[in-house]
Amino acid sequence: MAALAQAGYHTFGLDLQADRAEQVALQAELDAPGTRHGSRACDVADEDQVVAAFEEARAFLGRIDTLVTSAGVVDTTPFMDIPVARFRRIHDVNVIGTWLCMREAARHMQPGSAICAIASIAGLRGGGLSGTAAYAASKGGVIALAKNAARVLAARGIRVNTLSPGATDTPMIEEPLRDPAHRARIESLAAQQRIGQAQEIAAGVVYLLSPQASFTHGANLVVDGGIVIA
Ligand SMILES: NC(=O)c1ccc[n+]([C@@H]2O[C@H](COP(=O)([O-])OP(=O)(O)OC[C@H]3O[C@@H](n4cnc5c(N)ncnc54)[C@H](O)[C@@H]3O)[C@@H](O)[C@H]2O)c1
């Protein structure tokens, strides 16, 4: 949200943690005077909440012409031990939540709008960083889902792309990265030998949403310091 605010966007954030969303919105207003930022609590896996949240976002913003789907949950349970309910919840949030937000945003969008879905290189590599099977499968699902959305929503004049971050310094992987051996292994996987910063991911998001990316459609931009090099 901070990078979008700096780029001049007005935003409306949805998060399970209302206080976190509110804090981010308040900070964006301070950092980017003249832009407006709202928020509300929303479980993106809950259809009724998502429908209501997009109505509220539309009322707050006046129109919706960009969407970033970033809400997500990681899971680090070993393959043989993941409870089925946990596997389902990861997919409810990461895959169904992404689809519900795309669907509701598309209802409000006019031609010329753009969507950026945040996936992960876990969806390309089958995990192997901090997340395990449920997370990797869900992010592979996000990449496929966004490609389908790119085909379908083109008819409405909506561009859809995915951004797949590599390991990035955020609360999501704070816990696994406390283990120095794990951190060193993740860093060594990247050609740049480091973990990324959130601003480096956000810069890619701003690009994909911008008019500069007008012919970029159905793409998956990998921003990972050189882990997936193909
Ligand atoms: N940090 C990384 O290394 C990394 C790497 C690749 C991809 N990603 C992806 O980037 C995105 C952003 O993650 P982050 O790194 O900022 O992690 P984060 O944990 O800091 O942020 C994720 C946010 O999603 C919210 N959330 C969780 N479940 C939700 C739900 N059901 N409804 C609404 N909000 C919900 C959380 O409250 C949190 O604010 C995620 O999709 C994540 O999978 C992160």
Primary descriptors:
globular, four-stranded parallel sheet, Rossmann fold, single chain, about 15% strand, 9 helices, binds nicotinamide-adenine-dinucleotide
| CATH level 1 name | Alpha Beta
- Report the biggest beta sheet as strand number plus sense, adding barrel if it closes: 4 strands, parallel
Number of domains: 1
CATH superfamily: NAD(P)-binding Rossmann-like Domain
Total count of helical runs of at least 4 residues: 9
Spans of 5+ residues with little confidence (pLDDT < 50)?
A: none
According to CATH, what is the topology?
Rossmann fold
Q: What is the overall silhouette?
A: globular
Fraction in helix:
40-55%
Radius of gyration: 17 Å
DSSP, total strands: 6
What is the arithmetic mean of pLDDT?
97
By oligomeric state, this entry counts as: single chain
What is the first-to-last residue Cα distance? 30 Å
Side by side, the strands of the main sheet go 3-4-5-6
Describe the structure.
The chain is globular and about 50 Å long. It has helices at 2-6, 18-31, 47-61, 84-108, 122-125, 133-153, 174-177, 180-189, 198-209, and strands at 11-15, 37-41, 66-69, 114-118, 159-165, 220-223. Helices cover 48% and strands 13% of the residues. With 230 residues, it is an alpha/beta fold. Helix 3 runs parallel beside helix 4 (84-108). Helix 2 links the parallel strand 1 and strand 2. The two termini are 30 Å apart. The strands form two sheets. Strands 3-4-5-6 form a four-stranded parallel sheet, sandwiched between helices. Strands 1-2 form a two-stranded parallel sheet. The longest helix is centred in the middle third of the chain and has 25 residues, at 84-108. Nicotinamide-adenine-dinucleotide binds at residues 14-17, 20, 42-45, 70-73, 93, 97, 118, 120, 165, 167-168, 170-173. The site of nicotinamide-adenine-dinucleotide has 24 residues, from strand 1 and helix 4.
